Amino acid sequence: xxxxxxxxxxxxxxxxxxxxxxxxxxxxxxxxxxxxxxxxxxxxxxxxxxxxxxxxxxxxxxxxxxxxxxxxxxxxxxxxxxxxxxxxxxxxxxxxxxxxxxxxxxxxxxxxxxxxxxxxxxxxxxxxxxxxxxxxxxxxxxxxxxxxxxxxxxxxxxxxxxxxxxxxxxxxxxxxxxxxxxxxxxxxxxxxxxxxxxxxxxxxxxxxxxxxxxxxxxxxxxxxxxxxxxxxxxxxxxxxxxxxxxxxxxxxxxxxxxxxxxxxxxxxxxxxxxxxxxxxxxxxxxxxxxxxxxxxxxxxxxxxxxxxxxxxxxxxxxxxxxxxxxxxxxxxxxxxxxxxxxxxxxxxxxxxxxxxxxxxxxxxxxxxxxxxxxxxxxxxxxxxxxxxxxxxxxxxxxxxxxxxxxxxxxxxxxxxxxxxxxxxxxxxxxxxxxxxxxxxxxxxxxxxxxxxxxxxxxxxxxxxxxx
Length: 467
Ligand code: GAP
Hints:
Distance between the termini: 47 Å
Largest sheet: 8 strands, mixed
Number of helices: 16
Bound molecules: glycyl-adenosine-5'-phosphate
Oligomer: single chain
């Protein structure tokens, strides 16, 4: 839920009332604070993105469901800043053909179920607000399925009007089905210009300060409608004395949407309230009016909008564990984790067939070569049967296993077997080739199907399968 409705102001350190400390509810704010610097890094051009990973804290929740709902968790967020007039992603075509399960707000209100839709069609038909948001939904889908979540247990649910943050123009949560039901694991929101505008107001820096609240773009001359508060300095000064300056600055920094909303409150109740400098101030009809006029501008000032994918790492990891937990057909007791090799903590095991000393140099050669190639692996030279040792590595999700056997020792060129955990099939390849093969399998450059096509399948495995 990427809304601010239940958002705490941060956990306050109550041990020191003189110097309270606050813990952030999301990683995002640091990137908004650093907007000016990030813009400079990008040569003052839009669009650009920043990403951050770190701890986030929520004091409003009651922790439960293990990793699912905690007060302190790891969050990873991207803030992708765009020109509000150009919410078109140049790489959207890369993801447009993905078929994704979407649960739109319309489907939710009308009692329909989620349905699979081509991403390109969803953006064209306006189900998803714009192609930048669509692009990130596509990339989130690709990421989640790549790290091991089942496609059929993944959907994107659109926020309903009553749960959408007031600043967001569209928001979709990636949800996954677990034993706890459907849980949100990634939020993807178009937060419009809310954060940078709030920042402008809080720091009282007007739009004329370049590269901060606003970003100048040279476009063709354009006549624009301007809506602004016209403050009665005398009345505000009389009422609020030394605090008048900050109120005037606040009113000068308000945007059209906010002004229009307050104008109607002013009409109906004769006043509205603003919050600045940690205090609330009543603004009455004699203190302010709303001015509307046309302005021809040569340089347009815009406040960048932000699209924010926000990943809850603990929840994603939890879902990977649940979706990857499998049992071998016909043998309920034999369980394994089918982690994709890219995320498996150990990519490969190295198993001598027995404790025969002749296997030792080959095990050493393979282990050293894999260390050089950066392949995380584990040598298991314990005395258990090879089948039992395979089962043990399967249980912790090791993706592949190399076995050094008598053919490795006795035949040249020296070869060993490579076993795929999920299918339990094996191929035979030269000892010198195997570390590179595992590296390519582990980083996704090679698939097991490709390996099976290239190398002879090793059939002496059958006895091991039965164990
Ligand atoms: N900046 C947007 C934001 O904070 P959020 O939906 O509140 O949005 C983003 O949080 C992600 O963080 C969620 O999709 C979820 O995966 C994770 N998350 C939120 N609250 C959590 C909690 N109490 N415990 C564990 N993970 C949580």
